[in-house]
Amino acid sequence: VIKMRLPALLLLIFTGAAAFHIPSHEEKVAAWNKLTVFNCATQDFNEGVIDGYKLIFVNPIWRHGDRGPTEKYAGDVLDEDDWDFGGGGYGELSPIGMEQHFHLGEMMFERYAEGGKFLSERYRAKEIYARSTDRNRTLISAMSNFAGMYSRATAVNGTDYPAFSSWPVSFVPVSIHTEDQHHDHVGDPDADCARQDDLWYKLAHEHPEYINYNNKPRTQQTLDYLINATGSDKNGINFDNVYLIRGGMLAESIHFPDNFSTWYPWYSADVKQRVE
Ligand SMILES: *[C@@H]1O[C@H](CO)[C@@H](O)[C@H](O)[C@H]1NC(C)=O
Ligand SMILES: *[C@@H]1O[C@H](CO)[C@@H](O)[C@H](O)[C@H]1NC(C)=O
Ligand SMILES: *[C@@H]1O[C@H](CO)[C@@H](O)[C@H](O)[C@H]1NC(C)=O
Ligand SMILES: *[C@@H]1O[C@H](CO)[C@@H](O)[C@H](O)[C@H]1NC(C)=O
After folding, report:
1. Which interval of the chain is the signal sequence (predicted)?
2. pTM over 0.70, yes/no
């Protein structure tokens, strides 16, 4: 999770406009797209700011890039040692993820810094504050991001980075702040929180919507199929942990495309779609 110095003002403006008209889902998506870097890297960031107002603060938030599975999941044929990238082991950022973030950083540069239109073209410590959750993959995503944003030929040799031939070409280090994951209640949805546990285990699990969805024949058939196919314990795969199969399969299909269908013939397109 990264913050950049620019406006809370924007929120006020949109709240004001919304008082007259409740936007449809499509309108919200279109409005959101206008503000996201993905869809408008080259679009003027001032678009959407009303006359007489000036953009002074921007607070973008994004997730990590492509990673390996976070743990061994039911049916997984691989072990932790098979995951070598990003420092090795479970849940690390892959080189694909690093590249994704590098490109995102390039887009941020185009949108906010090119020509000094909002941020300076060089890393200025007082203009930008970056915060990441305390996970290797998010910290390295942030580093990759700022490499794409500020490590460029226009960075000043000997000032922005050392004038030293072995230093990675034009690499400008940018500080990334973090908070211990147990106490990071801003960025980490898994931070320690008794209230969240209560809401999830007592309120959500006992809610008719959850119970009905969990008890649906289609849900139970899918879980039973997965339990059988992976040879798991009767209660080994449930509605709460099936996401691990989804995430693990996604990672293995990306990183072992040649072996994937041989390893998991039972993970057909239909099963994949049900799991997702
Ligand atoms: C970060 O990497 C270290 C070393 O591989 C590992 O022990 C640790 O579990 C990782 N932690 C997180 C939160 O990614
Ligand atoms: C920066 O200057 C040093 C010393 O002159 C030189 O060795 C290095 O290649 C330069 N780096 C870049 C990216 O130009
Ligand atoms: C359980 O899996 C085995 C293969 O491991 C398969 O032959 C059998 O048909 C499956 N049973 C059900 C009910 O899906
Ligand atoms: C993937 O399959 C190929 C042969 O098709 C094999 O040589 C290779 O070792 C397999 N990779 C893994 C990680 O098992």
Report:
1. 1-19
2. yes
